[in-house]
Structure formats: structure tokens, C-alpha cells
Amino acid sequence: MYSANSHINYQLKIWLLILLSLIILIILVGGLTRLTDSGLSITTWELFVGFLPPLTNDIWLDYFNLYKTIPEYQEQNFNMTLDEFKVIFWWEWAHRQLGRLIGLVTLLPLLYFTIKNGLWVVKRYGIIFLLVCLQGFFGWYMVSSGLVNKIDVSHYRLSIHLFTAFIILSIVFWNFLKLTELQINQISIKSFFIKFFLFLLFMQLIIGAFVSGMNAGTIYNTWPLMGVSYFPDDSKMIEFLDIAVFDNPSIVQFLHRNLAYLIMIVYIFLLISIFKETNKIFRKPILIIGISLFLQVVLGILTILSGVKIIYASLHQINSILIVLSTLYFLYISKYEKKTN
Fold first, then answer.
1. Structural domain tally of the chain?
2. 3 secondary structure, DSSP code
3. Do both 233 and 337 map to the same domain?
4. I need a surface site. Which of 172, 187, 251, 307 has the fewest CB within 10 A?
5. Does residue 78 share a domain with residue 131?
6. How far apart are CA 267 and CA 272, in angstroms?
7. What is the dihedral of CA 186, 167, 245, 248, to 10 degrees?
8. Buried b vs exposed e over 225-238: b needs ≥16 C-beta within 10 Å?
9. Structure pTM?
10. Residue 34's Cα: distance from chain center in Å?
11. Range of the domain at 203
């Protein structure tokens, strides 16, 4: 249900647009937090504290001493100074504050619109707040996996955290589109193919999180081959029969590369189908998807060849947001038209 009141719909659009912008920002900051190895710098959850940054040297030392108790410091950063610690601390602190801000920007307007306009608001948008709360738990669940016996967080938990972020992003964007006056157009391509393309994108996000979580992008820094062969020479095909295959960094990078190739093939099928359509309105959005996909491939290759430089890896993640949002837009404006004889 949506209000017939255009003023209320306008307010809802502004709210969702602000929320969308904040989610994009936190995905960006979260990616940089991971790329700078900053995610374990705050070793406690601090659900109801931690709003203010350390204001005295003693507080800084307390945080630093807590960090010294975890394996990442003891095995990897044992020479780190307090000033160097402050750098990684600020990334994680900023990430957490953005999470809190998103929670407030979700909850307070949700309560306001519900009180003013009725329970239909919370029924329609309440799922966003629930997922935001769940995402906060997933964030700590991820961080906690790197505090004992490991110098990194679990790549499985990292993928859950990233996947949930994109689910929230997608729901907010889809609801924003519903409040617009976009025209829904008839298309001869079954929506299954568009949804399958979107499914592949989300699968790639998960595998990409595996790559990031295991630093798998640093294993093979050549393209198009992995070293001197197409398949990594430190692995065997039989490993695909074991679920532990996702713990092998080389194979995970191999999967990430080849899933990208599959996504491009499916996109080419969609592109050809769209250009056969008599309605030319679909051409612009499908070309935007194509341009962002091409850029994503280039950035992925540059990330690999550079040994995972932060600038390329960060842009690679940011561009994935554009691909997902443009695909959701394409799906929204298209409606399959059954052919009748």
C-alpha cells in the first residue's frame, strides 16, 4: 500500500534517498576498512557506548592495549605504534558511527511516518529497520571471528555482512522506485533472464567477499592466465567435490574470474535481445549496465595486476553498487508481455 497523497510520497522519497546515500557511503567505508586492515582495531562491540572517539591519551592507550591482546597485533602488527594504530582505529570508528546513523535515520522517520500516516508505513518499510539491526549483529559476528586464533575475520561472515548490506540497499532502492512515476514498459524477454542476471551479480558479491576475506587477490597477479595456466597450478579440480573448496584462496579467485565471464555472457544475451525490441526505451538502461560491467572487469583486472592496490579495489567495489542498482532499475521498468497467436 502507498499513500495517494503526493506530499507524503515526496517525503518518503526524500527519506529513502537519504537512506540510500548513507548505505552507499557505509559500503564504501566498509570496503576501505577491510582493505586497510582496520576492522579489528576496536575489539569490543560497544553497542551503547563508543559514540564519542577517544578524547584523552589514556583512553587511546586503553583501546591500543585491548588491540594488543588479539592475534592480528601479536602475529602481524607487533611493531605498530600508537599513531599507526590511530589510523586504523578511525576507519573502524567511522564505519560503526555510520551504522548507528543509518539505524537512527531508519527508525526515527519510520516512527514519524507511522504515527502520522498509519500502520501501513511500518508494514511496508519495517523490514528495512529489522535488516539494519540484523546487519549490526552480523558486523559484530564478523569482527568476533578475528579476535581469537586468527589474524583476519572469517570470509564467510564477511560475505554475510556484505550480502546483507546489498540486500538492504536493494530493498530501499526498490521501494524508492515504487514511489516514482516511472513508466512500466512491455518487454518480450521473460523476467527470469533478468532475475537470473541479478542472481549472478549477488553470487559474485559473495565470491568477491571470499576473495577479500582471504586476501585471495594477492595469490595470482596475472591475467588472463593464473600464473602460467588457466586453472591455478597449486590446486586440483577434484577439490570442487569438497565443500572446503571455498577455503582455498586460489580456487576462490578462479571462481571470481570465471563467474565474471559468465555474467558477461548472460549480459551479451540480454543486450542482443534488447536491441531486437521495437521499444527503444530499454536500450539506454541496458547500455548503462554494460558500461558499468566493462568498467568492473577493467577495475578487477587492474586490482589483480597491481597486487590489490587500494584505489583499484575500492573503485571495484563501488562500481558493483552501480551495476546492482542499474540492473534493479532495468528489472523495475520491464514487464514481460506474453505473446498470443
1. 2
2. -
3. yes
4. 307
5. yes
6. 9
7. 120
8. ebeeeeebeebeee
9. 0.93
10. 12
11. 184-341
